[in-house]
Amino acid sequence: MTYRGRFAPSPTGPLHAGSLVAALASWLDARAHGGQWLVRIEDVDGPRCPPGMDALILGQLERLSLRPDEAPVWQSRRGEFYQAALDRLIAGGQAYGCACTRAEIAAAAGPRAKHGELVYPGTCREGTRGRPVRAWRLRVQGRIGWQDRRLSAQSQDLEAEVGDFVLKRADGLWAYQLAVVVDDAEQGITDVVRGEDLAENTPRQIALQRALGLPTPRYLHTPLVMAADGHKLSKQNGAAALDLGDPVARLREAAVRLGLHLHTSDPLAETVAQWQAATIPAFSNSSRISP
């Protein structure tokens, strides 16, 4: 099976030090396996994506010589694929319409679970009682487990900790979970390499893959870059855009975050291409991140 990986940024802001770690890890993993590396622009939440931010991100990747092997794709152009998947789930009784407002869900769910997630209590599982459908949800049950390539054995009681989750939102936008599962399958992704903060999404995505009869990729969740206040570095907490005046320096910094210290001061690695050629074997030999 040919390895196919991907980097899938949301164009809500430019790449920063944290997103570069995920981008570099996914690129190195693909190259270490002699595979293909793709870029997908996850702009399904259009209102949060400033115009031109996708082009800026693609320009940043080009400056770092992180070039995809196929033309990038945009989620905002793929609604017909998501609708077809939702139609299949509805026809099979695996998805249903929900009339609940967020306030109603909060009142019925009680105390919030970890990370402030509202556990949907299944109010509309047997119908909306004549109320108009606002969103569409997937029926879930039981515990989902997987073997993460870095985090080892992981599991989540999806029904107790998340509940039936949204596939299409009340505002008409497609939910991230459905879009990413459909896209990974359609693009033939075999390995998902992304930040550790997204690990909690994996059980939902595996549940969707099973419901749609799609293959489950291997998962590798990379270490997070933390801000000075101890929280994850992100666009939401003001993470600075990458300063790409010295792209090799930025790549070296990202590699250190991945536990690759081998070439951080190699005087021969003066260009991006030289640095990449030296670092791919180091990534491949790293016991922390190998399959």
From TrEMBL:
It comes from the Bacteria. Its cofactor is Zn(2+). It is an enzyme of class 6 (ligase). The keyword Metal-binding applies. GO terms for molecular function: ATP binding; glutamate-tRNA ligase activity; zinc ion binding. L-glutamate binds at R6, F7, A8, P9, S10, E42, Y176, R194. Catalyzes the tRNA-independent activation of glutamate in presence of ATP and the subsequent transfer of glutamate onto a tRNA(Asp). Glutamate is transferred on the 2-amino-5-(4,5-dihydroxy-2-cyclopenten-1-yl) moiety of the queuosine in the wobble position of the QUC anticodon. This is Glutamyl-Q tRNA(Asp) synthetase. It comes from Pelomonas aquatica.
